């Protein structure tokens, strides 16, 4: 099963393929495939399978004619902002030039919460030892563990 990031990566690759197709045509100053043959142009530009292109064309016709309310798979994956489009173009150039090995998955940079307090490693080891010894004594003496007895042990 594909996740949202897999579809977004695929969308980015397709956009990059279309971009490269258009750049190639612009460099040749002519259409490599006649404009009247839109299905062949679609397959060449996107580098998708013929069966996939047929499904998309049929689905687009259904949406246009009102037989469907929207595309069945991830409508949001293809609605991209201008900035995202610029990033894809830059990333496509990097891939083409060999500066990058493939397309990256977009990810949010989330701030990680910092620990409430910072304890030096040496003190952490002391605390671990106290807690370990407390439970070893507890198991051997079979007395009930309470926070008060643990606090008494730490304060000693």
Which helices and strands, and how do they pair?
Layout: H1 4-28, H2 38-46, H3 50-65, H4 75-78, H5 82-97, H6 121-141, H7 147-155
Helix pairs in contact: 1-5
Q: TL;DR?
A:
With 156 residues, this protein is an all-alpha fold. It folds into 2 domains: 4-97, no CATH class; 121-155, no CATH class.
Task: Describe the protein in words.
Helix content is 64%, strand content 0%. It has 156 residues and is mostly helical. The chain folds into two domains: 94 residues, no CATH class; 35 residues, no CATH class. α1 packs across α5. The chain starts with a helix and ends with a helix. The relative contact order is 0.09. About 3% of the residues have low confidence.
Principal-axes shape call: elongated
The number of E-state strands comes to 0
User: What level of helicity do the residues show?
Assistant: 55-70%
SSE run: HHHHHHH
Number of helices: 7
Give the biggest beta sheet.
none
Helix/strand/pairing category: mainly alpha
Mean pLDDT: 75
